[in-house]
Amino acid sequence: MESKKVTILDLRARKREGIPITMLTAYDYPSALVVDRAGIDVILVGDSLAMVVLGHETTLPVSMEEMLHHCRAVRRGARRALLVGDMPFLSYQADVGQAVTNAGRFLKEAGMDAVKLEGGREMAETIRAILDAGIPVMGHLGLTPQSIHKLGGYKVQGKDAAAAKRLMEDARILEEAGCFSIVLEAIPAPVAERITRSLSIPTIGIGAGPGCDGQVLVLHDLLGMFERFTPRFVKKYANLFQEMTRAIEAYRGEVLNRSFPGPEHTFKISEEELAALEEL
Ligand code: KIV
């Protein structure tokens, strides 16, 4: 695996060359280490951590401080991947100046290389301002989980021609505003493919079919570590929840029947020291 750090320019080259971009989420040091060593191009410290790591019902409650805390841990584990910090709900929607300051914190305080934020045309001014501060921005269109209450649930977006046209326009506007890439979430495959063809920046799909320039999944979904629900677009490559349960139950059983710790896990002292100890 080539160890040169991935840049936003590499991603654009990958689109030109037709080589798919791989992206996954990670939220801490060990997951970043594994994902990075496996050769994944982009690590997203997603606000999905609110659900899969912190146990919230939606992504809305996670704070800037919590995001930065997890980003720092990921930074310590990753060497090669491009690192993208996900801007949490209300860290960029209310005020452009605050959005720039918060985006800057991901780079300055947590070692991220770029930020991601959700939304279409309404975010263009904010994206331009963040870029003017020298911070690369990844867009996110389609099912945008921070707008879950407005969307009325986790539903596929862009299903009728008018909605699909609006998504295509939004993608164009995000490209013109300067995004280096756009995540397309839960969009019919033909719509995502059209958007992808119409842009010079790469699209990264999640539930958007094979026609995108790259794919992303939530790490805990891919590994089978998130039990609450599994979206249709997820492929589980492992069932770590089951495997972890098996290991922990085995440990519990061995502690109860005193077969753990065994001699190989136990420190000894010399016979002389033991005898001296007896005399004390
Ligand atoms: O927060 C996240 O994990 C994301 C991905 C689903 C793209 O935004």
Question: What would your notes on this structure say?
Answer:
The protein has 280 residues and is an alpha/beta fold. The protein has two domains: 231 residues, TIM Barrel; 36 residues, no CATH class. The protein has an eight-stranded parallel beta barrel with strand order 1-2-3-4-5-6-7-8, surrounded by seven helices. The protein is elongated. Bound molecules: 3-methyl-2-oxobutanoic acid (KIV). The site of 3-methyl-2-oxobutanoic acid has 10 residues, from loops.
Summarize the structure.
The chain is an alpha/beta fold and 280 residues long.
Which short descriptors sum up this protein?
elongated; single chain; 13% strand; 280 residues; 8-stranded parallel beta barrel; binds 3-methyl-2-oxobutanoic acid; TIM Barrel; alpha/beta; 2 domains
Q: Which CATH class of the largest domain applies here?
A: Alpha Beta
Identify every distinct bound molecule in the structure, by name, code or SMILES: 3-methyl-2-oxobutanoic acid
Strand order of the largest sheet: 1-2-3-4-5-6-7-8
Globally, the shape reads elongated
The CATH architecture of the largest domain is Alpha-Beta Barrel
State the major sheet: 8 strands, parallel, barrel
